[in-house]
Amino acid sequence: MKYNPGEIEKKWQAYWEKNKTNKTEDFSEKQKYYCLDMFPYPSGVGLHVGHFKGYVATDIVARVKRMQGFEVLHPIGWDAFGLPAENFAIKTGIHPEITTEKNIENIKHQMKIAGLSYDWDREINTTDSDYYKWTQWIFLKLYEKGLAYKKLLPINWCPSCKTGLANEEVVDGKCERCGAETTKKDIEQWILKITAYADRLLEDLETLDWPDRIKEMQKNWIGRSEGWEIDFGIKDTGKTVTVFTTRADTLFGCTYIVLAPESDIVTDLKDKISNWEEVSGYIEKTKNKSDLERISEVKGKNGVELKGVKAINPINGKEVRVFAADYVLASYGTGAVMAVPAHDERDFEFAIKYDLPIIEVVRPRSGESDISESAYVQDGFLINSDTFSDMDSESARKAIGESLKDEGFARERVNYKLHDWPFSRQRYWGEPIPIIHCDKCGMVPLEEKDLPLTLPHVDKYEPTGTGESPLAAIETWVNVKCPKCGGMAKRETNTMPQWAGSCWYYLRYLDNNNDKSLVNSEKEKRWMPVDLYVGGAEHAVLHLLYSRFWHKFLYDIGVVSTKEPFQKLRNIGLVLAHDGQKMSKSKGNVISPDSVVDEFGADTLRVYEMFMGPFDQAIGWNEQGVKGVNRFLGRAWDMVIQSESVAESSSEMISETNKLIKKVSDDLEKMKFNTPIAFFMEYVNFVYENKNDFGKDSAEIFVKLLFPFAPHICEELWQLLGEKGLISEQEWPVCNEALVKNDKIVLVVQVNGKVRDRMEFDSDIDQERAEEAVKNSEVIAKWIGGKEIKKVVFAKGKLINIVV
RNA sequence: GCCGCGGUGCUGGAAUCGGCAGACAGGACGGACUUAAAAUCCGUUGGGCCUAGCCCGUGUGGGUUCAAUUCCCACCCGCGGCACCA
User: Fold this and answer.
1) Is the pLDDT of residue A468 over 90?
2) What is the pLDDT of residues A745-773, one digit of tens each?
3) A784 CA to B48 C1', in Å?
4) What pTM value is reported for the model?
5) Does residue A153 contact residue A186 with C-beta atoms inside 8 Å?
6) Which of A244, A348, A591, A755 has the greatest count of CB atoms below 10 A from its CB?
7) A248 close to A313: Cβ distance less than 8 angstroms
8) Count of helix runs (H) and strand runs (E) in chain A
9) Closest CA to A25 of A79, A73, A61, A96
């Protein structure tokens, strides 16, 4: 009988589906394990082999955990709101609902032919009104707690998608989606107060088993810095300008202050500014620059002095000049900085350009600094700083800050790079925001009983570009009675961004049909947190930050019982095309899993994706490698079939089999998938050399171990071996150390650290006897050559090194 | 510029509580089977030389050690992220 994947895979997929083999019980005696994939966007082109690398890995973990006696939750769903379906609708007039449904069908089929063991009864779809009812519910709670507010703000605007974007969605000054250059636009926006959670988002990173890289990225993105707010009085006005600094120790070196051109502080001082025309011209110029222009002008500082305005340094009462310059950002800190050219590179550059004084106030304790050449930005000890001279930078920061605080000129302050999250989009295909605007009552949230607020059908999907979504054109929908006063009112027409539905979807799998609450709290306590979360690294500061924020909020209002949603996170390395390029439709180098399944079978696809290399590394697809894996599975098939003619395994074979159990189990625990497959291959090679030693007892164990990787072939072999029940229901083998033969070992013999021989001994040999034997060996005697032995190093069971 | 990760044969990679570098796979070459091809099976495959043997070899240079791909220092290169954040 030959290995025929096409036949057996169909057979077992049908069987598993019909018998709901992979169904998860909500509550059982078993320990829980929640194994989650980042759910896909159901795009029209379907999934490629890169997506499956992640799905196969979690599927292997899920199957192993089931065999190890865990109750495993391994669900999947669809993150189906988003631009591609909407853009397709604009072009063709076909409603996104229809395209989405079709695409889901296709992807579901792809997943099923790959033998992924999802519990399909828990499928969710973010565009179902039963689902987004709860997305809207969370929004209302955020609103209720003051964490969602509407504000007129200059936000990132994509002129091509005609919608506002969050900072996280702008990459290099371009729209993350379409690549168009973004501009700033003043729009009234819904904003979520993610900054209220900045500290907790930062601190709790420590508790997570996530890749360093992702933690680091979130840390940088949150960008916490501790410092002082210091008030500079403006001479003859009674007004003050507050600056933020992390370097209060350099305050004596401040020779001017700089304001962000677009900040209100500048216009506030208009009366005092003698060159207002020049200044306002500079402000206008800055405002009209795109993000991209501003980024590209990073080098080459320029600005304008506010003539007639002088600020007073509160530490020494000295008058300093005041500038406006676009290297100071209105959106960070107070929008104003104290400039210390001797100890800040940017201030140094600016001071050189405008010929401003440079006063040195910090010197290194050891080494040299030359502030006529460049700024010295590190810590050191203070000079030219009155009574603070001679102090270390660190203590001086505190001392100077405290002394100003006592006089009412300074406050301790923590700043973040993280900004609040602009949450409204001027597009159609998203969750409607459940708010009504009434002239009399202002903003009125819908009541929970009125949810879901369903997305109405429209005739035109085209975004308006005016800051309103296409929903604004549907008068029957927009015009409503105010729930409070009964007067005429209008619905909010903006929709939620892509990320909304994915912020909490992992909770809905626990209880996907609940129409009373978001999730039953018993179920939530049973299953949270997610034990393993697998997905691409591209979501490092988007989905992963947003959903942590929502989760913490849900924790605060008592919906969830854990502080963090995803305990352990692992990233998938990209699957590249054969040439090392990224797979893309335009390059025509995309490999679809369907074609691989068609030609070689799902088990080959699965094992190859895992065998390619380390899971988190980007590696190119290699058709020959796929064939190699297929060859291996064929050999394994024949090997197991042949085992029936052998009565029982030899003790050596049993030993090898137990070693295999140990190695495969250990590596899987470490999320290593490529090395277990290498062990399987070695094992198969060994069996081929010792065919008469390989009996059914060993074959059973081999098949169990391989099952999570290649479920179809193993289920079939299990049956062919005449075993009862499904292999899916078997227990994971445990290594019996007693059966592992290790009475003989090969000792590496070195002379002066170089390998000269290998000798076989009993495994418990001690140094004395080994030394004796080694000295008597001809090969080694030759190397020692009568020289004096200085030292003998003995590593038990491994190596002996004679130093002469 | 700053932060993070990495650099091993022709290729993907294996081996890091310091202890046989190159497991496993692919490719290439040689052979068996075949009328032939595919498939399958077997063998060889880091470089060099005075070829039963020895020397060199894990980005580069140095260090620690009986022993370094593994630890330390400096540097080079690649990838990813952030980027006027005061």
Assistant:
1) no
2) 788 888 888 888 888 888 778 888 888 88
3) 26
4) 0.93
5) yes
6) A348
7) no
8) 25, 31
9) A73
Q: Chain-centre distance of CA A461, in angstroms?
A: 32
Over residues A516-572, the pLDDT tens digits come to: 999 999 999 999 999 999 998 888 888 999 999 999 999 999 999 999 999 999 999
Residue type at A528 in one-letter notation = M
Q: What is the DSSP string of A226-291?
A: EEEEEEEEETTTS-EEEEEES-GGGGGG--EEEE-TTSHHHHHTGGG-TTHHHHHHHHHHHHHS-H
* A387-444 residue pLDDT tens: 999 999 999 999 999 999 999 999 999 999 999 999 999 999 999 999 999 999 999 9
Comparing every residue's Cα with the C1' atom of nucleotide B24, the nearest one is: A678
Q: Measure CA to C1' and name the residue nearest B81.
A: A217
* AA letter at A234: I
C-alpha Rg value of chain A to the nearest Å: 34
**Closest residue by Cα to the C1' atom of nucleotide B68?**
A753
CA→C1' distance for A773 and B16 (Å): 31
- Which two three-digit tokens encode residue A664? 């495969």
Of chain A, the percentage scoring pLDDT greater than 90 comes to: 69
Residue nearest to nucleotide B5 (CA to C1'): A213
CA of A655 to C1' of B25 (A): 25
- Residue A580 CA and nucleotide B78 C1' are separated, in Å, by 14
**3-class DSSP string for A479-505:** EEECCCCCCEEEECCCECCCCCHHHCH
What number is the ipTM of this complex? 0.94
Tokens of A560: 């969830």
Q: A181 pairs with which residues across the strands?
A: A174
For the purposes of burial, counting CB atoms within 10 Å of the CB of A464, is it exposed (0-12), middle (13-18) or buried (19 or more)? middle
What is the C-alpha separation between A465 and A159, in angstroms, rounded?
Answer: 8
User: Which nucleotide comes closest to A624 if you measure CA to C1'?
Assistant: B26
Nucleotides of strand B lying closer than 7 angstroms to a protein CB: 3-5, 11-15, 19-21, 23-27, 39-42, 54-55, 66-68, 79-86
- Rounded CA–C1' distance between A499 and B79, in angstroms: 28
Instruction: Yes or no: say if A282 and A330 are a contact pair by the CB < 8 Å rule.
Output: no
Rounded Cα distance, A122 and A135, in Å: 18
Distance CA A500, CA A81 (A): 9
Cα dihedral: A581, A586, A587, A592 (round 10)? 80
Q: For residue A668, what are its two tokens?
A: 């899987």
Judged by C1' against the alpha carbon of A630, the nearest nucleotide is B25
Strands A442-445, A240-245: pairing is unpaired
CA dist A391 and A395 (Å) reads: 7
Quick check: A225 and A415 in contact, CB under 8 A? Answer: yes
Nucleotide showing the shortest C1' distance to residue A346 CA: B84
DSSP state at residue A455: P
Whole-angstrom CA distances from A672 to A42, A223, A745 are 29, 33, 27
Which residue in A243, A346, A249, A270 sits closest to A302, CA to CA?
Answer: A346
**Rounded distance between C-alpha atoms, residue A228 and residue A321, angstroms:** 21
Cβ contact A493:A530 at 8 Å: no
Residues contacting A535, CB < 8 A, separation 6+: A37, A38, A54, A569, A571, A572
Task: Find all residues with CB under 8 Å of A246, minimum gap 6, and list them.
Answer: A225, A226, A227, A397
Query: In this structure, is the dihedral angle defined by the CA atoms of residues A402, A407, A410 and A412, taken in order, positive or negative?
Result: positive
Q: Which residues contact A725 (CB under 8 A, 6 or more apart)?
A: none
| A145 touches A634 (CB < 8 A) | no
Rounded Cα distance between A222 and A545, Å, is 10
